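Researcher: Re-running this chain for the archive, since the previous output was lost when a drive failed. Same request as before.
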Amino acid sequence: MGYWGSEVQILSSRPLLYRLENYTEQNLTESYIMEEKIKFGTDGWRAVIADEFTFQNVRVVALAISEYLSSNNLTNNGIFIGYDNRFLSEEFAKEVALTLADKNFKVYLSSGSVPTPVTAFMVRELNLDGAIMITASHNPPQYNGIKFIPSYGGPAVDEITQKIENNVNLVARNIERFDREKIKKLETKINYVSNFEKYKQKILRLIDTEIIKKAKPKVVVDPMYGAGSKILLDILNDLKIHVHPLNTSRDPLFGGKLPDPNENNLAEMKDKMAKDEFDLGVALDGDADRFGVIDGRRIFLTPNNVISLILYYLLKTRGHNSDDIVVRTVATTHLIDEICAKNNIKLVETPVGFKYIAQKMLTDKVIIGGEESGGLSIKNHIPEKDGILANLLLIEIQSFLNQNHEGMFLSDYLNQIYKEFGSFYNKRLDLEVPMEKKNDVLEHFYNQKDKDIKGRSITRISKENGIHISFDDKSWVLVRPSGTEPLIRCYIESRDREFFHVLKNLFS
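Model: Regenerated structure tokens:
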């Protein structure tokens, strides 16, 4: 059973249908909202469809958002609504649109599924008061969710989501179902949007399209049945490179896998690359704000490696200014710190969650902001993680290697970085832990502060963002509960391979 013994058990999934006996719709709504309080995690509210994520609760959250907007005089410019490929996402988005239209907001509803970064881009492009994205990102297919994106085009900060949460109980008692006649009237107020060319033009200005067109890399693309299929393939077709697409249709079950571009879920891509000669394969998660990559040697590069690699490449090819900074979350590799130190660039560490990186992007010149979970953005782009941008930058780097270092792939380039800065071994372990046991597990780790592990002394333990354990050789471990799932995430990094494996075995 490993370190956890018999305490950790895989949770059985809750039934999809909530008990309806002896409830009127009004009673159901009031009781349900009070019992299952809607909470926004690091990146929105997510819940199981037909259990917590119901049309009633979606209307409640939409009303809570409208109350926040109205109380802050954000009612003149309108709201954009996007949605991903999950089950009923378009219907949930329509419900949000009708709810906001009933409150006299200008509503712009996407006519098809769109990535989260496109939704964030549209807020700024149309100069709107905000956006709502129906997505559960990389969560299992039985989940859906809602993200609120304020006018700055990035994730909502805690202050905003707390106000929305507080509004939930205020509006839940006044929820109403629209009849057919009212729906017809409200539908006339909805503006449908289908043209996202401005996003494509913007993102193409951020990459070196000429080197990609000259090198013509061969690329496998796997959008994982998600919302990024059309836009990413359209951009690559414009670049006139050889593309082999996988899993581009809509499948709310995501082919029986999590829509998360980690190594385990990209086996099909790796198999395709083994049969034919490709320079790299790139992937997206369900709403296209996260990335995944396998290079021409069929090696999976972790997000930690990718962020470091892109930063290194940008500094070599774009340079930097004296007031530029780099931002990473507390759970992200410290290789980034070493690259910044050598180039005399300020490094800023934030709590886990791209919303904290986004705030730095709004106030500072951020060369790159990245987080271990697979999100990044760069200077002059939206303050929201963008998997499409990340994939295009990786394709640019491989094109650069094709042009200047024949036979070299991304993992070779990474090894060059390791030769310059030393190796960094890191991994995230996701441990299923019942909700009621999470605090006990965290307390257990906090109580390790006076212990040594294999001769390495623990120099510091903090309770910020979970339990952060620092060792005297600069190795570190972060133990952090998931905000949306019955999981505890353990992040481990060491510059010593042997000690890294000691830590990995200890915490797995």
